Amino acid sequence: MSGVKVLTGGCHCGLVRFECTTDLAMVTACNCSICTKKGLHFTFLPPKSFQLRAGAESLKEYLFNKRAISHQLCGECGVEVFARGTKPDGSEVVALNVSCIDGIELSQLTMTPIDGRHR
Fold this sequence. Notes:
Helix content is 5%, strand content 43%.
C-alpha cells in the first residue's frame, strides 16, 4: 500500500471507530511479549493524523513493564485498537493496530522487523 490515504477502522464489535491519515510506510513485526502474544502490527502516527470517531467511553487502558505506553482496548470485545505514548525525542505518538483498519490485507503489507524482545 503506498501513498498517504484516509483510512477508517475499529474494533471487532464496532463500538470503537477511528479515522486516520497514513501511508503505512512502516508496519511493525515486533517480537516483544505483547506484540507476539496478541499478534499486533503497529504503524506510528502523529496525534493530529488520528481521530477517534466513536467509543471513547468503551476504551480500557492497559499499562505494563515501564508503564510508558497507554494501550487502548475495547472494553466489550477486548481488541487493542491503538496505543498512545511518546517517542524518544519526547513527541507524542499514536501506535495504530494496523489489523483494525477496515479491509486491510496484512499479507500485502511490507513488515519491518523490530527486536522488542531484547530492548
